[in-house]
Structure formats: C-alpha cells, structure tokens
Design brief:
It is a single chain. It is built from 14 helices and 14 strands. By secondary structure, it is of the alpha/beta class. The protein has a seven-stranded mixed sheet, with helices on both faces. It has a four-stranded antiparallel sheet with strand order 10-12-14-13. Helix 4 packs parallel to helix 10 (242-253) and helix 5 crosses helix 6 (108-116). The chain is globular, with a radius of gyration of 22 Å. The relative contact order is 0.17.
C-alpha cells in the first residue's frame, strides 16, 4: 500500500487517471427516485383528467400533507423555492428602499431576490451553524430593515429561535429558508414553522422533488392573507401543477424514512470516518436538540486549490461532490451594505465542498465502501 500511496499522493492531475484505474468507482444511488408509487400517482392524475386542471385534488392533498408535516396552518404552493422567497418578502411588506438582512454565505438567489423586489441586502457573518450569527445580527443598526432571511444549510440548523426573538424585539419579519432541510426539527418544531414565514423547495435535486416547485408556510393569518392577495389574480400567478403535486405526494409519505436513512449514514461517518479525514474540516455538526435532515453535507478544505483538487478527483471516482455556496462578501457596496466583519463567510466561501444526499441513501451494507472512498479521496489530494 505504501508504494501505491507514494505513486498517487501528488495533488495535480498527472496521476489521477491511473489512480481511477486502480480503484472501483462509487455507484451512487439515483435521484430523483424511481419509485413505482410516483409513477402510479402521476398516471392516476392523468387518467382522472386532473392533470389539465387549474386546481385539483392532488394540490389540495399536498397542501394538507405539508400542513401536517411542517406544523403550518397556512400553506401556499408555488413554482419554485426562489419564488417562495420572493412572495415571502412581498408578504412581509418589503418594498423599494427597505433593507433585508441575510448571511454573506447563503444561496445566492436569496440575495438576488432581495434586489428584485427593490430592497437592499445587508450582509452579516455566519457562526458554527453556517447561518446568521445572532451577535452579528444584533450589531446591525438598521432603521430601514424590514425582514431577515435565515437559511438552514448543509444539515445545520440556524439558531432560529434566538433569531426570531431578536426579530420580534425589533419588529422585523423572519423568513426561515428551509429549502434544504425538509423534515428537520429544532427543539421538536419543524424547520420552516418557527419563523414568521417559511419556505420550501421542490427543485430537481432536492429531497422532495418535482423538477421545480416550492411552498410558502406561515402560522399567522396576517401573512396568509397577504400571500393570497399577491398570488390570486384571480388565477394563481405562481402555480405548482397537479402533476407536480402527484409526484410529490408519495415522496412526502416517505420523507421520514429517507431522512432516517441519510441521518444513519451521517452518524456512521461521524463515528467511524470523519476523524480519519485529517485535512478536511467537518461542518455538518450534529447538535443535541436538532433532528437533522440532509440535502448536502459539508467540509472545508485547506484552500481553494485544495478544494478544486478534491472535486476533480471525486468526479473521476463517481462521488457526487461539488463546491458549496460562494460567499457574497465581494458584492459591490452599491448593491449591499456590510455593517460587520465577514471573516467566516469569506473563508468558508472559498473552501466549502459538499457531498450530495443521494450518496447518503446507501444501505448499511455500503457504509464501509463510502468511508473507504472518502478516505482514499482525502489521502490522494494532499
């Protein structure tokens, strides 16, 4: 084994091709899932004729199921997770001239959506949750702030209850972006139900997928009324189709099962593998009061160059690993305000890499295979 490691420990691409001939490639489970009940649900919708309806039983059933799963008294389906953020901002009363706070390390679409509604993003730093640091939020002097977007990413729960308290104290609306973590609970409450407004995504790679689609959640009638007034014109201005709803219903029924499978894989990695990945910093930390849900799990590399080498070799090995969200710290001062230092967001934006949730759906019989592949990847990108 010593000779093999000497041969391939060069981090450049010169030795990658012979390395991939020595080791087998990882056969990643397919996603979206090829479950017969999804096909049956879609076929039933076609046979009933509901597929061509503005409103259908499938849409109403999905709203009811989401309401129960996410403890939300009001659910509105829409065309994407990004649209859900836009609608939530408008329902929160965000208008041109207002400001909206978000983490400098976040889904870039949230930044752009704030701009789309005419408001100005205010960037704050992240803490160990990879979401808004409440201390950073508390340091913002902001007469024009109307809302805060807090995202749960990479299986981490934002400090959402403290963020909610700070928002309540200041009269801000908290939009909880739960697009990456359907099924996560925080202190027993479903992610997406704790903020004043919550959002879900059903994009093509998400743990709940219809190719596209989303939902806005709230437990406050004042916001539900505003959402309906934005979308009812009188037809739905941002619809999710009956066929999409039909595809989602069976997935929602198996969401807990799939989440448990992903969590079990991550627990194995944490107990048996993570400590052997010496040059990778594990970022998807388990927390006692959080029942996680994973769309991606994340590490930080030692540099941008180190990350690039990891991603390049991972592709050749069949491991679904890619870059994490880039930081928005370099955005022009004309576009945003930066009232606090953004050290964590800057560093992590250059070094985060993520493993897709499809790889976490393997059974227990493949835990060792995944662990071995990750260790080999770490060893041969030093």
């Amino acid at each position: 084994m010593g000779r093999r490691q000497d041969r391939y420990d060069d981090p450049t691409n010169r030795h990658i091709e012979p390395y991939t001939r020595v080791f087998m490639k990882f056969d990643c489970p397919s996603w979206p899932p090829e479950w017969p009940e999804i096909r049956a649900s879609i076929n039933q919708t076609i046979d009933s004729g509901n597929w061509g309806s503005y409103r259908s039983d499938q849409q109403e059933q999905l709203k009811t199921a989401i309401s129960a799963t996410f403890s939300a008294s009001h659910v509105r389906l829409c065309c994407s997770g990004t649209a859900a953020i836009e609608i939530a901002l408008k329902a929160a009363g965000v208008r041109p001239g207002h400001e909206v706070i978000l983490a400098a390390l976040d889904y870039p679409g949230n930044f752009r959506t704030i701009e789309l509604v005419g408001a100005r993003p205010v960037l704050v730093d992240v803490d160990q949750t990879l979401s808004i640091d409440p201390k950073s939020l508390a340091a913002v002097a902001a007469a024009d702030v109307r809302a805060v977007i807090a995202s749960h990413i990479y299986g981490n729960a934002a400090d959402i209850k403290n963020l909610k308290s700070e928002c309540d104290r200041r009269g801000w609306v908290l939009i909880e972006d739960a697009c990456q973590v359907p099924g996560m609970t925080i202190g027993g409450a479903p992610a997406g139900s704790i903020g004043h407004l919550g959002t879900l995504s059903f994009g093509g790679s998400k743990p709940l997928t219809a190719g596209s689609g989303g939902a806005i959640l709230t437990n406050e009638s004042r916001f539900a009324v505003k959402i309906d007034s934005i979308l009812d014109r009188p037809s739905d201005a941002s619809p999710l189709s009956p066929l999409q709803a039909a595809a989602l219903l069976p997935q929602l029924q198996r969401l807990q099962e799939c989440n448990q499978r992903r969590v079990a894989t991550v627990r194995h990695l944490e107990s048996k593998v993570i400590s052997h990945l010496a040059r990778w910093l594990w970022l998807s930390q388990s927390r006692e009061h959080v029942e996680p849900a994973y769309y991606k799990v994340a590490w930080a590399a030692q540099s941008a160059e180190h990350r690039a080498a990891i991603i390049d070799l991972a592709a050749k090995l069949g491991l679904p690993i890619g870059e994490g969200f880039r930081s928005m710290v370099r955005s022009s001062e004309r576009r945003c305000r930066k009232p606090v230092a953004l050290h964590q967001s800057t560093r992590l934006g250059e070094t985060i890499f993520v493993l897709d949730h499809a790889a976490l759906l393997i059974g227990e019989d493949r835990y060792r295979e995944l662990g071995d592949m990750l260790q080999q990847l770490e060893q041969h990108t030093r």
